[in-house]
Amino acid sequence: MRICRVATVPFFVAHHLKNQITATVAAGHEVVVVTSPEPSLDRLGKQMGAHIHPVPIVRKLSPLSDLCSLLALYRYFSEARFDIVHSTTPKAGLLCAIAAFMARVPIRLHTFTGQPWMFVTSPLKWLARMADRVIIRLNTRCYADSHSQAAYLVSQKIAGPDEIVVPGDGSLGGVDLVQFNPDSWRSRGDEIRRETGVPPGARIITYIGRITKDKGISELISALGQLINRGMDVYLLLIGPFEPERDPLSEEVLRQIRQEARIKVIGYSTEPERYLSISTVFCLPSYREGFGNVIIEAAVMGIPSVATRIVGLVDAVVDGETGILIQPRDVDGLAEALSRMLGDDSLRMKMGKAAQERARSLFNAEIVNQLLLDEYESLRRQSAALKNYTNSKIS
Fold first, then answer.
1. Mean pLDDT of the chain
2. Per DSSP, what are the bridge partners of residue 264?
3. Residue 50: CB partners within 8 Å, gap ≥ 6?
4. Which of 98, 121, 252, 301 could form a disulfide with 276 if both were Cys (CB 3.0 to 4.6 A apart)?
5. What's residue 119's pLDDT?
6. pLDDT at 391 (0 to 100)
7. Whole-structure pTM value
8. Residues 89-110 pLDDT 10s
9. What's residue 245's pLDDT?
10. CA-based nearest residue to 21, from 52, 63, 66
């Protein structure tokens, strides 16, 4: 089949879709990736074995730019004659739903990976909700990357119970067990600690993701301060990009990050497993998520998590078994959960082992990717059957 995968920004493709697209190409399908232009796109395309077709798609609401992107997508879909157009990320999802419908693409798919409008109070929330309804209505099928997210979309009357599907146990692309293999890094712990400036014996809390307000970074920094004040020998690794233009941290939190010697800012890394290999506990105190794939990446490395009890993360963490869930925005609760995990080696090892076994059995990328490929094939057969039926009625 000719398949088009669409995401607003290249970062999402590289970080979340790369392995899945590679697997789709390996299964014999032709894949074109549509995303915003960036110098590294050609290299990314070669790594995946996919073609790249850049189309500028801005993340913020911009009527003129959005109209230009919509027309560009419509023209391209009309010319390329894809069997499937499959979008992710909110803006790409809306534009693709309209463009692919207008271009009569036979199979139109979208995967929801979280609702940015969940805590918005401005009139933009109504527009964002309406956009998600349009995505549901115009696509052949829509997916969510977690069961709790699907239930939330139904509860909010964005989708009906039969309009949203969760492949398997969830997650967007699962975890590559070859990449996230703790045995590959076991002998390099001292070297990695020296590189990051963390002394031997110190406990390490690791965070991976966008370093923004809605990820709970402010609460994490405050909780770390409590642990340090209690005399705990603990460090924090922050791995990921800052986004000051989209969801900025306060100047006070930025100052604390700059001045606290026990906070190590790594930045974006293509090898998060490198840092997970020396981690004591993983922490994701986010306000909203779709699934929280970083949690199962940590789990495969044998690292339990402390995370918030929100949509998506309740699917990634089994509270009390593979990690600890706390209420969002609760600094004291976060500090207590981290203190408990860091201070009880037996509990942490037990949870880490359970997390690893669960992630390997349920979220192996090979399993998750095959579920998607099976979906593609099933939808292709249905589309062909419908076309044959329609042609026979006409004749």
1. 95
2. 237
3. 5, 21, 22, 25, 31, 32, 33
4. 301
5. 83
6. 59
7. 0.93
8. 999 999 999 999 999 999 999 9
9. 84
10. 52
- Name the residue type at position 321: E
Cβ–Cβ < 8 Å for 178, 159: no
DSSP string, 264-280: EE----S-HHHHHTT-S
CA distances from 384 to 380, 387, 390 (A): 6, 5, 10
Tell me if 59 sits within 8 A of 243, measured CB to CB: no
Amino acid letter, 269: S
| Helices 293-300/345-362 angle, 10° precision | 110
- Cβ contact 59:246 at 8 Å: yes
Residue range 168-178: mean pLDDT, rounded: 94
Model pLDDT, residue 123: 84
Question: For residues 99 and 122, which has the higher predicted lDDT (pLDDT)?
Answer: 99
- What single-letter amino acid sits at 268? Y
- Which phi and psi (to 5°) does residue 110 adopt? -145, 140
Distance CA 144, CA 154 (A): 11
CA separation for the pair 298, 208 (Å, rounded): 10
Residue with tokens 């609460």, as numbered in its chain: 219
Give the C-alpha separation, 86 to 94, whole Å.
Answer: 12
How many residues does the structure list for the chain?
A: 395
Return the residue matching tokens 């089994």.
318
Residue 244 has pLDDT above 70, yes or no: yes
10 Å Cβ neighbour count for 87? Answer: 28
Q: Tokens 């949509």 — which residue?
A: 311
Which helix (H) or strand (E) covers residue 305, if one does? strand 305-308
End-to-end CA distance of the chain: 27
